Amino acid sequence: MNVRKEAAMPGIDDLELVRDLLRVEPPHAATTARGQQRLAELFGADEEQVAAGPDRAVRTHWLRLPGRRWRPVLAAGLAAAIAAGFVAVQAVAPGGALPADALTVGRLVKLAAAEAELQAVVRPGQWVFWEKKLRSPTYFGLPNGITDVWSTADARKVAYRRNGILRVVRCTVDPCPHLGGGDAFATHVTIHRSQKGTSETFGASLGKAHPVRYGQLGSLPRSPQALERYLARLGYGPGGPATRAFSLIDFLLTSYVMPPKLTAELYRALGDIPGVTVDEHAVDVAGRPGVGFKISAGAARYEIILARRDYRLMGDENRVAGYGFSVSGEAILRQAPVSGPGVLP
Amino acid sequence: MTVASQLASGGRGDAIRPASDSAVIVDSLGCPEQFGEIYRRYFSEIYAYVAGRLGRDTADDLAAETFLAAFRRRRSFSPERGGVRPWLYGIATNVVAEYRRQESRRYRALAKVGADPDVDGDEDRVVDRVSAADQRGQLAAALARLPARDRDVLMLVALGDLSYAEVAFALSIPEGTVGSRLTRVRRTLTRALGAGLST
Q1: Is the pLDDT of residue B94 over 90?
Q2: pLDDT-derived band of residue A221, with 50, 70 and 90 as boundaries?
Q3: In this structure, what are the phi and psi dihedrals at residue B13, rounded to the nearest 5 degrees?
Q4: Lowest-pLDDT range, A151-155, A165-169, A234-238, B57-61?
Q5: Is residue B3 part of a domain?
Q6: N or C end of chain B: which has fewer CB within 10 A?
Q7: What count of CB pairs under 8 Å joins A to B?
Q8: A169 has which bridge partners?
Q9: A8 pLDDT exceeds 70?
Q10: Percent of chain A predicted with pLDDT > 70
């Protein structure tokens, strides 16, 4: 509720009179500087206290799993790879009390949700340019390195350059994956020729679409608990209900530009998933430090990484315990609305 | 940077949005120097709030005290309850509360000064200035008589430009209480001003 600005008595603006009566000149520069100095002295004392605190949890090393958006393409290969010899050795984080300033799941959820809700609404058909650093096993034929992709906010269309030619693809799966011009993507592109010309579609060979389409986002349960239960029941992703819900939320966050309120609800739902913890020292596949929500499923660990600066999505990363190297993940280096496919921001 | 913030910043791909206040507070838990950003953002307006109530000499020290107290309490700050700005105003209000008598003395002094203007000039302007000075004097005298809790609400709205919800957060009172106190205090002020104008 906003404060009523009108005067309580016609002709007299009492609040403005109070402001006028008590208005003062800005502080002298010396006053501001003196306050800064006093604060700086306090910083030093606080740093000593932090330094004397308990050790932070040591980050575990994992072998990473492929990205969940690519799982329709990769599921069989991944299962075979794990069965072929990836050993599930989940490192155990050292015990002990959390540091006094530890970032809890609840706190991270609130920060991420609060930031998400500040964002403006983007219409579903708006073209968006994505610059992503992708990391994946080479034997899956997926692109590694930095790729430029254009996608509509609802991810119904995607565009990329292949051999220097811009190709706009309409997807039969929803959403289109952001795989750029990778061979794995191209494998599933079908070229249609008719009297009207040539068009391309993606995903006809993949069959079933993802369980939550953009058009269904508005009908998702509103409460975080109900949303988490609903997502867990959809059967998307690996492991039990908790990791399935986590995977689906990651998939939605990294695939679409969603309404701000829904994005916030998804972060809140993350906080309700059993087993989700915080990685205060997360690093994305581009090497950028951040903070992460993480969850484990047997040998695998999944992580959604947010920027330390403003708690916005930086990307995701997926690992399998035992060998300590990344299997897959993506880092969103740049994301900007553009006027159309092929247009750079 | 998200698409939405890109749109908000005019669609420039390289625009950088400043970190939110809450994010700065959280960052300052591990890196205390980050709190300096909160000081840079809000010192001037907290100073204006404290100086408005207690005078500039006192505010020179107490405005900084507000930030020292905020820094010590930053671990207890909960962004889900309210913003950093009203949180700082709440702390400043607690700091001011230690100087209630001085605040009342300031208003009484303003009442005296306000009612005793310089009367040089032509007749119309003198009448206007005397009238305005009378009004200021009546207002200051009314402020001096206000109960402390009502005055806190008034000052947070008038000087801090806080909403009902923000005042409620700053003072840890229900939003409805903010509304009732503000209604009461504004009625008191307009009655005092009306009486001054009618004499």
Answers
A1: yes
A2: confident
A3: -70, -25
A4: A234-238
A5: no
A6: C
A7: 196
A8: A158
A9: no
A10: 61
Partner residue opposite B140 with nearest CB, options A21, A39, A40: A21
pTM to 2 decimals? 0.45
| Structure token pair of residue B126 | 């003198």
Phi first, then psi: what are they for A174, rounded to 5°? -130, 115
Does residue B73 or residue A100 have the better pLDDT? B73
B172-177 CB contacts, 8 Å cutoff, 24+ apart: B172/B90, B175/A1
- Are A27 and B53 within 8 A, CB to CB? no
Q: Do B22 and A118 touch (CB under 8 A)?
A: no
Q: Which of B1, B3, B183 to mutate to test the interface with A (most CBs of A within 10 A)?
A: B3
Please name the residues in contact with A93: beta carbons below 8 A apart, sequence gap of 6 or more: A57, A58, A60
Residues of B in contact with A224 (CB under 8 A): none
Gap from B122 CA to chain A (nearest CA, Å): 24
Residue of B6, B74, B146, B193 to mutate, interface with A, max A Cβ within 10 Å: B6
Does any domain span residue B128? yes
pLDDT over 50 (residue A76): no
In a domain, B9, yes or no: no
Per the DSSP assignment, residues forming a β-bridge with A63 are A320
Per the domain annotation, does B5 fall within a domain?
no
Looking at the 3D structure of chain B, how many domains does it have?
1
Q: CA distances (Å), A22 to each of A30, A108, A295, B134, in order?
A: 22, 40, 55, 15
Domain extent at residue B53: 14-198
Confidence at residue A223, expressed as pLDDT on a 0 to 100 scale = 77
Contacts of B19 in chain A (CB under 8 A): 309-310
